[in-house]
Queue: 2 jobs
Job 1
Amino acid sequence: MSKKVTTIKDIAERLNVSIATVSRALRGSTDIKRETKLAVMEMAKEMDYHPNLLASSLSSKKSKILGVVVPTINRQFWSNSISGIENIAYGLGYKVMIFQSAESFQKEVEIVETLANSRVDGILLALSKETNSYGHIQNIMDRGIPVLLFERVCSEINSSKVTTDDLNGSKEVVQHLITRGKRKIAYLSGPMSLGVCEARLTGYKEAHEENRLSFDPDLILELDDFTYEAAEKALKKLWEGRTRPDALFCFADILAIGALEAGKKLGIKIPEELAIAGFGNDDISRFVSPSLTTMSQPSFEMGQLAADLILKEINSEEDLTEPHYKTIKPELIIREST
């Protein structure tokens, strides 16, 4: 048999006071006697009372909950971003509900709808690699729920956005490789359906153009998965190809580390025969051997900024006339691999 849920009415009846008095006491109101407030709090504890958050949100029109949707939580960039979001949200009395889309468009659609129906005050979303239509996001915004896109964004949705300066960050990495005397620079990309992948490829190309270097399209490989194994197969393909690269720039550190380990198996001298650089500055990039040159993304700070922006939008007394669009500059970290 399930236990009966204690309500405010039950506490009021036990103390012979009004429901309104109990409600004010539980909210910490200062317009009732201290003795009454203490009696209510003690009785609530004795009766194992827990507030109904949904009922509270219906009356206040605020749930004090943010929804966060990321592709995965097992990559450091996303876990750091979530930590940054929680850092700001919890400090302002908000809780965070975290979901991962597992790079699935259908799952992303279902999660966003679930969050909206759960009456969250706002949603922070990083798009899945499969997402190429955005009606589910627009629908939520049309229902009056603020949405902020971060890191993986799209131009089709007129919402606030927080991104990394991926184009110039990518360009700086490739420029660094060029200054090291590298001329046949390969690039391992993620799916080009993602704007962030396209931006980093653009930076790669612009660095070549600005240095009057041509690039071989055969040295650009688009990978569907962000895994060590995918990078290992890609490097083997490049090394056995028509043009053997002398440098490799990878979309993410996980790919760069996978390529680095594959290079060791193939007997490649790094960085003498093949310089390798990544993007992200995951903690492990400092500890692999040789240590990895990478573009550091301030993911924790990105999460903080994203949370700060959406909470300002949620709590503003005026409608947002223009969405906020913030870009964070990454920083090149030079290590042994280049």
Job 2
Amino acid sequence: MLELNKVNFEDEVLKSEGLTFVDFWGDSCESCKALMPDIEALSEMYGDKIKFTKLNTTKARRVAISQRVLGLPTLLLYKDGSIIEEITKDQANKDHIETVIKKYL
């Protein structure tokens, strides 16, 4: 998974062609950390079709705010730089995330 930051976010996500999955997480978000192995497993399964990335909002708060990420965990799926799907809180589980991914493949 590609580690995003305030420097590379625009190029890697907003200017990227095709599908890009962004896992917005934070240092103090325990549910984010618990979800991370599932996201990495999905990245192994679908990484040839979707670019999987993650952004630590603790280090890039302005980027998160610019994407209207107000709570964690938040997972956004982009197509050609535009948000096409948002997964938050209770929906943030491996089965639901995989269902969303399959919808766009």
